[in-house]
Amino acid sequence: MSEGKNVLVVDDEKKILEVVSSYLESKAHKVYTADTGNEALDIFNRETIEFVILDLMLPDLSGEEVCTKIRKCSRVPILMLTAKTLEEDMLEGLHMGADDYMIKPFSLKELYARMEAILRRTAESPIPLAARFLWNEGDLSIDFEKVEVKKNGEPISLTPKEWKILSALVKYPQKVFTRDDLLGVAFDVSYEGNDRVIDTHIKNLRKKIEDDPQKPVYVKTVHGLGYRFGGEKQ
């Protein structure tokens, strides 16, 4: 369990605000609530917020707009809530800088488990807040604002799970991620399948971003432990 945090919960459904707030407060977190995007930003600018739970569908500013404004000045962890299930919509949330997303309806236990997983990942210092990074003289580039990955200047298509895995590795380049860590990054907390599914996603990711998938320079294997990110950032 993480120590108590200042959590901002943003949703235009009063019932969700009440239920989520009550649950998080029972876990020793201090909760601030907002039912509009402008109110959320006012609270964020006024208080020391350490975690944000943000619904995409708000009556004034959209959740995407709120997330974008927060990301211009802070790396505070953001968990997005969405009723959308299309792959493009999920990528859009990550595109805006969210650390993860959950699809409505959701259980409070799963919400809290995802929150804890994000807090564990973000406990380490991430790379400086920036939109775009280049590695190995531009051989690989990642644009977090556009959710775009290019290999030798050519865009490559990643699945949402591949993007989430690559983003986590890139943001914490010194961290060795176990398969369980990456399951938490890419899958629902309730996923009970074999952790070797991560190896399949890593294999597919390497095919897309490595010159030689058998001798990877970006997604490195740490034998007996897991995976970490390599490459020389420009």
Automatic annotation (TrEMBL):
Residues 131-231 bind DNA. Signal peptide: none annotated. Keywords: DNA-binding, Phosphoprotein, Transcription, Transcription regulation, Two-component regulatory system. Residues 6-119 form the Response regulatory domain. It comes from the Bacteria. One of its GO terms (biological process) is regulation of DNA-templated transcription. Residues 131-231 form the OmpR/PhoB-type domain. One of its GO terms (cellular component) is cytosol. The modification 4-aspartylphosphate is found at D55. One of its GO terms (molecular function) is transcription cis-regulatory region binding. Pfam families: Response_reg, Trans_reg_C. Coiled coil: none annotated. May play the central regulatory role in sporulation. It may be an element of the effector pathway responsible for the activation of sporulation genes in response to nutritional stress. Spo0A may act in concert with spo0H (a sigma factor) to control the expression of some genes that are critical to the sporulation process. This is Stage 0 sporulation protein A homolog. It comes from Muricomes intestini.
